[in-house]
Amino acid sequence: MTDSSNNSQGDGARAGIDVSSPIRVLVAKLGLDGHDRGAKVVARILRDAGMEVVYTGLYKSPNDVVSAAIQEDVDVIGVSLLSGSHLPLFQELGRCLREKKAEHIFVVAGGVIPEHDYAALSDSGVDAIVPQEARSDLIVTTIRKLIAERGRI
Amino acid sequence: MTAFAPSRPARRAAYVASAELVPDVLSGSVLAVARMISRAEAGYAEASEALSEIYRHTGKAHVVGITGVPGAGKSTLVAALIKAFASDGQKVGVIAVDPSSPFSGGAILGDRVRMSDAAQSSQAFVRSMATRGHLGGLARATLQAVDVLDAAGYSPIIIETVGVGQDEVEVVTAAHTIVVLSAPGLGDDIQAIKAGILEIADIHAVSKCDRPDAPAAVAALRGMMTLGPGRPGSDWQAPVLPVSSVSGEHISELKDAISRHWDHLRDSGELHDRERNIGRTRILGTARQLFQDRFKRDVTELETHVQAVVDRAMDPSVAACLLLGWENEVQVK
């Protein structure tokens, strides 16, 4: 349960109180993969775990996703990919993150991704891969672990 | 089953002090603006001085509130307005508020889905914000986020409220110009003369004007306007504008009306009243919040009074005065 105050615009930082902030995740679909039911299920799982999920919709380019992630100052970009084009798309995503000086944003991949591609994805900047057959809480714990290790920024 | 997550050495990004971010915010760095908004939202004590410094650089932007029922088309309209203002060469800031879950505290912020094309413009900065339990249509830190965008040179700054009901009118004390967006087909002309949200409009827009029932909604609102005077203390006549974000119809008229209202506020001196109104609400709102936060941190004193109230040994208003340290008020009673 969050704050129960009402009818007040608060200048919270003035108070000298550190309020813990929800983890923010941008859930994106990259490229021409039009299947977003999985992404919506993941968004719902993260919401129910107390995270703030920015959902961007379908057919996004890596550049669009990185621009949005920077403006939203998310902790994590979560990408679900089912199309098989994960290698070039994640490489481009990693390149855009570096180019825009946003490498502090974690990248978590999900969807249909064969194990023999894991190492290559890791090299292109993917921080964690959650296999498609994983239980829902694995997504949540994976994200929480990444953030806990990083600390606040 | 585990996730594949190879650990990396010394994972990037140390905490940058808020004071160091301020010059970057003022020069318009998107990364710095985004981070400073997060810190205002989180309420980091460390950021408070930086936000004070930023506040000194505000007061230039035209702040526009867009409100309306869920599904009226607010996000779609904001997307169309971003394009319209950006094509005039203006740097447009947007704060889009969506509700947090009362149960988990989480949120799905979906306003970007409808803004994605417009938000790619280098002239635009779009930020989604969850209410984090705040009621009234805005989030707790919405106005601080507006400060950050203002200091970074964005104007206009559009605040898109959560989808509201009939009475969430907080945006009226947050923005200079209020656009109330109505959708066709949601009620008869009695809906249009009720008190509340429709009264706060400086501009009425009726969305989806490509639909056949739109003219009736426009007529109902225009009818309402003829029944009596507009907002107290103002001689501005709120226009009723049909718009279609899909076809782009009348979006430029709406943009012009927003700009015209800004000119009116400055020329008539009404801007001064609105600024005072915004300032007053922010001070009082923050005072209330500080009071609540104080008793969230230290519950002992509060809980003692709660028990006294439950036991009928004390009434709630006496307990409140005691918590505020107003013993004299209690004796007067």
Topology, element by element:
The complex is a heterodimer of chains A (153) and B (333).
Chain A: E1 24-28, H1 37-48, E2 52-55, H2 62-72, E3 76-81, H3 86-99, E4 106-111, H4 118-123, E5 128-131, H5 136-150
Parallel strand pairs in A: 1-2, 1-3, 3-4, 4-5
Chain B: H1 18-26, H2 30-42, H3 48-55, E1 63-68, H4 74-87, E2 92-98, E3 107-109, H5 111-119, E4 124-130, H6 142-151, E5 157-160, E6 177-182, E7 203-206, H7 214-226, E8 240-242, H8 251-268, H9 270-297, H10 299-310, H11 316-324, H12 327-332
Parallel strand pairs in B: 1-5, 1-6, 2-4, 2-5, 6-7, 7-8
Describe it.
The complex is a heterodimer of chains A (153) and B (333). With 153 residues, chain A is of the alpha/beta class. Chain A has one domain: Cobalamin-binding domain (Rossmann fold, 3-Layer(aba) Sandwich), CATH 3.40.50.280. Chain A contains five helices and five strands; from the N terminus they run βαβαβαβαβα. A five-stranded parallel sheet of chain A has the order 2-1-3-4-5, with helices on both faces. In chain A, helix 4 links the parallel strand 4 and strand 5. In chain A, helix 2 crosses helix 3. Chain A is globular and about 40 Å long. The N terminus of chain A is likely disordered. Chain B has 333 residues and is an alpha/beta fold. Chain B has three domains: 41 residues, no CATH class; 211 residues, Rossmann fold (3-Layer(aba) Sandwich), CATH 3.40.50; 52 residues, no CATH class. Chain B has a seven-stranded parallel sheet, sandwiched between helices. In chain B, helix 2 packs antiparallel against helix 6 and helix 4 packs parallel to helix 5. The N and C termini of chain B lie far apart (66 Å). Classes of the chains: A alpha/beta (153), B alpha/beta (333). At the A-B interface, helix 1, strand 2, helix 2, strand 5 and helix 5 of A face helix 2, helix 3, strand 3, helix 5 and strand 4 of B. Strand 2 of chain A pairs parallel with strand 3 of chain B, so a sheet runs across the interface.
